[in-house]
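Hello,

Our lab assistant flagged a job as stuck in the queue for most of the afternoon. It eventually completed. Since we weren't sure the result was trustworthy after the delay, we are filing this so someone can double-check. Below is the sequence as submitted and the structure that was eventually returned. Let us know if re-running is recommended.
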Amino acid sequence: MTATTRPLAAQAQAQVTGVIRDTAGGAVPNAKITLRNLATGVIFTATSNEDGIYRFLSIPAARYMASSTVTGFKTFEQGPITVQVADILNLDVTLQLGEASEKIVVTESAESLQTQTATVGAVVTTREIENLPLNVRDPLALVGLTPGVTFGANFGSGGGQETGRNFFKSDFNVGGGRSGSQELLLDGVPNTTADVNRAVINPPVDSVQEFKVQTNSYDAEFGRTSGGVVNVITKSGANDLHGLAYDFERHSFIEANNFFNNRSGIPNPSFKRHQFGGNVSGPIIKNKTFFFADYEGLRQGFPITFISTVPTALQRAGNFSQTVAANGSPITVYDPNTLTTLANGTRQRSPFPGNIVPSDRQDPVAKKIASFYPLQNLPGDSVTGQNNYVRSAGSTINTDKWDARADQNFGENTRLFGRYSQQKDVRLVPGPLAGVIGGGRSTTDTYHQAVTDFTRVLTPNLILTAQFGFSRALAAQFGLSRGFDIASLGTC
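-- returned structure --
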């Protein structure tokens, strides 16, 4: 659980700054400039100082239309302007003499070169998130598009085939930093556990607006990291009511069987993946209050093939006369009751005659344990007889996740938003052998996160922002033999 108060840039907001001049290059003081969010209609206003400099200290990442109307000058308009997460965007304005009823429209983009900060990084945009192919629709997999980022072994597969647990979403390296040492932010709050810095919430791909991966030279306000900073923001509602529903399917009947199953005459086990969900967003009060909600479910069952070694029929009976090493030499079984001390002080035991343990010398508990092993179903190695058992078993993953977000704009200078997210992931992974002897595990991961953010611009140089984040991650993992009564093995 974490509660945080963070500076502006860490809160996934952005800034726009620039200079307002006339055509002769002179500064235009006290000039009013506005930014209108094209999706929500929310308007932000700033005024230039005596040097013509203006600044929007805190605005959400979005597409805007900029305009400025000053007495004695033509109305200036530029857009659409794309402001990205954690941007400090430069937008200079040149006003021309004329009547306000006349309009100068500039369609070129604002200056994208970041001259206000030394941060090195890259933004993964909405277009990339929605259009690039993603296995199991994992938006965080797109961090790999950033130069200097490499994935760890568990990022996509830890805890299950082809879809890793949320905890492993921080298993990547940025600029040579250690795996799991990244600062992951979601809507400005830490999206990691406090103990081992593992990821918590992984929102559906259609609910992520964009994110920025900052590889180095990031500002001092970012902490808890010796690697990079991944700053993710979720979508908010807009003035238009919007909905989306989807269903993605993958099934084994169109996939080839694997080599080991074919060799053993085992048919292709069933693989089924259903990934479905949707979202809805829109206005509660036009230009003021908006909502966004989503749900995504994953139902997956897939095969796992194990090759292992089980006792042969002779070994079950205590006969090890045919048990040999890889070089063909016998593996001798010694009788512990024949331990003697020789004249030179060494201790020596004698082997069982014929390398066979008599039935009256076999421990009843050991015989009970041996009975849990399945019978061999492969010839095994031509020399040792090892790898004489193959098993295909099904593993399942059931995931449910949902988010609810609300945004409230009280005016040009004051706004509030809140979000609650919950995810539950239930996994069943079988062991290499059937029954209680075979291992396997059951894992249930539950994640919660609540965020609220209040921002008020007090003056052109002073901003008040307060943010609270609560995160909780619980992992419960048990072996599939849980509940086995060890007393049923008997006594020696």
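-- support follow-up --
The delay was a queue issue, not a problem with the job. The result is valid. The first strand starts at residue 14 and ends at 22. The two ends are 49 Å apart (CA to CA).
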